[in-house]
From TrEMBL:
GO terms for biological process: response to cold; response to heat; response to salt stress; response to water deprivation. It comes from Raphanus sativus (Radish). This is Annexin. Belongs to the annexin family. Belongs to the annexin (TC 1.A.31.1) family. Transmembrane segments: none annotated. Keywords: Acetylation, Annexin, Calcium, Calcium/phospholipid-binding, Metal-binding, Repeat.
């Protein structure tokens, strides 16, 4: 469920476009007006506003936002404007081919999206950037980390609710051998199971592994894998069982300690606001006894803070 609030009566795209045009006039721009409009329109409504703005004023709204806004607010609003698949493709491109490769962002986009979403992202990536996402992964990742990402991108997984208990038990035994301390970790087995099985299957596998061997599968993975490979496997496992907790934990990490990881904070708030932020907000409060709204409020400032809080919705 989404958290951003859309007015009961939404002005026409033309009215919104005209208000935005006025907000850009003069020295500087009226960021409050921009936020009040764009933070309270869904993806379809934002697309219509963009079309109307270009038609009426012969100008590109995103380019105008790029030139008029600054800092984190600009970054957040520009990420907010595209529809989800285009946005995910652009996040992947920046994460893979930016000045520094952001492996956590790559894992987040690839390993938390459904098979159908990944197929769309791959097509948009190719159409937009003229290169297959697999080629950029091949170039920027390495070893088992690269292998698991490529397998996840290219494996067609069953996405229904049914599971085969026998296969789940067989997988548990195979994984136990693969991560046994007395053997060298069988990484290809880990990759095959984690990229080939449905989320429902992985949830059952986690429970079965615990009941059969008295140990959490996640702990076994942490004990026997390292670095980006470990992170991707745990992302797949955590999102299969409770994606809301995965994002709640990642959001908390982005604001924990000295300084804020604004890139991660913006990415997660923007990409989940129209999807499942309601559940993430609830999970955050449940786990950390504090509202996500208050956490973001204390770690951000100015119009940037206003925009993110608008996407999070009321502080409930």
């Amino acid at each position: 469920m989404a958290t951003m609030k859309i007015p009961m009566t939404v002005p026409s795209p033309r009215v919104d476009a005209e208000q935005l045009f006025k907000a850009f006039k003069g020295r500087g721009c009226d960021a409050s007006v921009i936020i009040n409009i764009l933070a309270h329109r869904n993806a379809g409504q934002r697309a219509l506003i963009e079309q109307e703005y270009e038609t009426k004023f012969s100008d590109d709204l995103r380019k105008r936002l790029q030139s008029e806004l600054h800092g984190h607010l600009k970054k957040a609003l520009l990420l907010w404007m595209p529809e989800a698949v285009e946005r995910d493709a652009s996040i992947l491109k920046q994460a893979l081919r930016g000045a520094v490769t952001d492996h956590k962002a790559v894992a987040e986009i690839i390993c938390t999206r459904s098979g159908s979403q990944l197929r769309q992202i791959k097509q948009v990536y190719l159409n937009t950037f003229g290169v297959r996402v697999e080629q950029d992964v091949e170039s920027e990742a390495s070893g088992n980390h690269k292998r698991v990402l490529l397998a996840y991108l290219n494996t067609t997984r069953y996405e229904g609710p049914e599971i085969d208990d026998k296969i789940v038990e067989d997988d548990a035994r195979v994984l136990k051998k693969a991560v046994a301390r007395k053997h060298k970790s069988d990484d290809q087995t880990l990759i095959q199971i984690f990229t080939d099985r449905s989320r429902t299957h992985l949830v059952a596998l986690r429970s079965t592994y615990r009941s059969m061997f008295g140990k959490e599968l996640g702990k076994a993975i942490r004990d026997e894998t390292r670095g980006n490979f470990e992170h991707v496997l745990l992302t797949i496992l955590q999102c299969a069982e409770n994606s809301s907790f995965y994002f709640a934990k990642a959001l908390r990490k982005s604001m924990k300690g000295l300084g804020t990881d604004d890139t991660a904070l913006i990415r997660m708030v923007v990409t989940r606001a129209e999807v499942d932020m309601h559940y993430i907000v609830s999970e955050y409060r449940k786990r950390y006894k504090k509202s996500l709204y208050n956490a973001v409020q204390s770690d951000t400032s100015g119009h940037y803070k206003t925009f993110l809080l608008s996407l999070l919705g009321p502080n409930v």
